[in-house]
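Go through this pair.

…
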Amino acid sequence: MQQRHVRFFGGLISIVLFAAFSVFISGCKFQPGWGYNKGYSPEQPIPFDHSVHVGKHNIQCQYCHNQVERSTHSNIPALSTCMNCHMQVKTDSPHIQKMRDAYDSGKSVEWVKVHMLPDHVRFNHGAHLKKGVNCQTCHGAVETMSRVTQQADLSMGWCVNCHRQPENNAPLNCTTCHY
């Protein structure tokens, strides 16, 4: 009889502790880390409005991110790419003047990366573009963003779900994405 009481109270204590832990965790502002940055929208050193450049002026992603089709990584545009237009366009803007000063002195602008993956994950932009995946699939409607925001969580599950779609015919083996 005494053993049943011990088991009963032991089980009851376990349930109470689990419930308390669950309430504690649900109240925490838990941020899992790299690859789960959905909603991340850092302030940039110079405001860059994609809705103007891509949306209004129809500049293609690949004009500025010109390495994306032939490289595993996308590139942040060189200042020379920006200055192709901004030597004549909006030259009176203090933001453009800041870019021009950096350009003239051979410096660069320290842009803040928005879309990040863990170091042990490789993502090949070129391979995805060759398969017809458009930029908006992962990056959202950048052409409407005045400030770029990470739209997808870019978690392993998010990527694998896309790879599992029959129409994508994408590889599912671990070494496709992991070193």
Notes: The first helix runs from residue 2 to 27. Confidence is low (pLDDT under 50) at residues 20-32. Residues 134 and 176 are 20 Å apart (CA to CA).
